[in-house]
Amino acid sequence: MRRGFEFMEKSATSHLRLFIFMMAGLVVFVGIIAVSIFFVAVRGAEQTLVPEVRGKELTEALLELQVKELYPRIQLRYSQSSRDRGHILEQEPKAGTIVKAGRQIRLVVSQGVMINRVENFVGRNIDDVRMDLQIFIASSGSPLLILKEPLMYDFSPETPGTILRQKPEPGTDISGPMDMEFVVSRGTEHALVTVPQLIGLSLSSALEQIGRMGIVFEFSIRDIREGENGGTVVYQNPPAGTSVTSNVIITLTVNTPTRLDEGEVFGLFTYAMPRNPYPLPVRLEALLPAGERVRLIGVDYPGGKFTVPYRLPTDSTLILSLMNREIHREIIR
């Protein structure tokens, strides 16, 4: 009997020890897991390199930061030039710094010039200045400088569209709304060009040559005659090699193609453009039924009658643009 009690006592002691060891092991195991989770948590996010975004437009800078998993903190500041508007002036941390992903990057963005004196616009392009003045009015709501229209133009060796003189003079204090008067270059007076040889060229080659030289032209089309290659220039006036002033119209005749594929059309695009004091960038494109966009001609053109032959699939859309702004479109049948 006594031995039985001793055996039970030893068995209970053994089980108690086993239970204590198991609990101790469980505590150690839980502790290891807790320590592992702690170190994973404090290790932090992946490191990344801060990109150089100074001088870039805000949208471009934001995209670069997004790729690096960095976030902007934007501050606005006036700058010394209206051309800085919307561009990054400063950044912190600087480019090349290694930081953790998710870090905020301070960006100082130009909101343009705080105008209190008249800027020097001489030497700048009138279209760029016009855009800057419109942006300033839209952002400030205060039209302090109002462009006086119509503009005055003068012949000059400067590039057409360059501002030659301005009134008020640069540095004049702005005490209230005032008119800005500009004298703008219309290019060299009576500049001479040599008429290129266009007879015998295919339509596409002739349009490419015209676009490079920037000559004023007017097309007509006629039926193909015996012995001719179809879709080529068969007449020009003045003839090749003639020296003429840059405003002289070169008249050209293109004959019809030898044959048209099914679903093609050959015709003459004609549009009366407003006259400009100097040639402006003009572009004629075709949007094909399949969705492809094809340029027919790009040329600096002074305005007036604009004619271009075309050979295109039926239901193509012709798109005419002036200074990258669409002014006309039509579907050809």
Fold and architecture overview:
By secondary structure, the protein is of the alpha+beta class. The chain has three domains: 47-110, Trypsin Inhibitor V, Chain A, CATH 3.30.10.20; 126-185, no CATH class; 192-331, 2-Layer Sandwich (Trypsin Inhibitor V, Chain A), CATH 3.30.10. Helices cover 23% and strands 36% of the residues. The chain contains four helices and 20 strands. The strands form seven sheets. Strands 6, 7, 8 and 9 form a four-stranded mixed β-sheet that branches. A four-stranded antiparallel β-sheet has the order 17-16-19-20. Strand 19 (317-322) and strand 20 (325-331) form a beta hairpin. The longest helix is centred in the first third of the chain and has 42 residues, at 2-43. The model is unreliable at 40-44 (pLDDT under 50).
Sequence-ordered SSE layout with sheet pairings:
Layout (H helix, E strand, L loop, with lengths): L1 H42 L3 E3 L8 H10 L3 E7 L10 E5 L5 E3 L3 E7 L15 H15 L4 E3 L4 E3 L8 E5 L10 E8 L6 E3 L8 H11 L2 E7 L10 E5 L5 E3 L3 E7 L8 E10 L6 E8 L5 E9 L2 E10 L3 E6 L2 E7 L2
Parallel strand pairs: 2-5, 6-9, 7-9, 11-14
Antiparallel strand pairs: 1-4, 3-5, 8-9, 10-13, 12-14, 15-18, 16-17, 16-19, 19-20
